[in-house]
Amino acid sequence: MLGEMQVKVYNAPFFPSGRQQLKLSKRLKQIEQMVGNGYDHIWDCCCDHGLLGIALLERQAAPHIHFVDIVPELISNVEAKLQKFDSKTQSHWQVHCLDTAAIPFDHYHGKHLVIIAGVGGDLISMFVNAILKQHPNLNIEFIVCPVHHQFALRETFRCLQQGLVDEALIKENGRFYEIIHVDNRQAQQKPINLVGEKFWQATSTEGIESAKEYLKKTLVHYQKIQQGQKKNVDHIVDAYQAITI
Known about the structure:
By secondary structure, this protein is of the alpha/beta class. The protein has seven helices and eight strands. 31% of the residues are buried.
C-alpha cells in the first residue's frame, strides 16, 4: 500500500515578509527548542497545520524543511500558507502528501531529523521501524512526542538500538507528554531508559512537582490495567515503582 502512495511535492525558497509571531503550543515550543544545528533535512511529519515546521523555517534550522501529512486537505492548506512568504534566502521548503513510512529519504543527501508528534506511540513505532528497515545506512535521527504508549515506544527504540540524545516532560492542557530525541550513534553511550530518566531528576520545585504528578498518573494507569488482568504489565508497574524523585 505504501508504495502506491501519490506524492505531491512543491519546492520554493522561504523567508517571511516581516516576522510573524507564531503561537506554538508548549509541546511544539519544547520540540522546536530541542532541534539543534547540523541537519541537512528536517521532516515535520504528521504536520497538521505546519506550525512547527514554519517555526523551524523562521530560524532557518536547516537548509531544507519538509512538511509531511497523509491528509491532502492539510497539506494543501500548509502549502497555501507557505506560498505567501517572500523568497529572500537559500532555505527551502517542500510539502509531501504521503505516509511517513513511505518518505524516500534516499532521494535526499545528507543528515536527516524526523519529527513525529501528535500520534500514538504504536503508530510512531510502526513509522520508525519502516523507515530504518528501508534506510538502514542513512544518517537519520528522530524527535518524537507520542500521545500515549510511551513505554512501548521506548521498547521499540531499544530494540532498534537507538540511543538517547535528549528528553523532556511537558504538561499541556492537563495532560503530560514525553518528548524523546534518539540517534543510533548514541546507542552504546546512552541506551534508552524504558521509563525515562532526565525528567525524574528535576531540580526546580515546578519540575519536581510535575514529575511526581506524572509518575502518580502513570502508575495509576498501569495498575488499573494490571488489576484487569487482560494484559501482563507487571514489569511496567515494577519499573515505574522503582523510580525515586
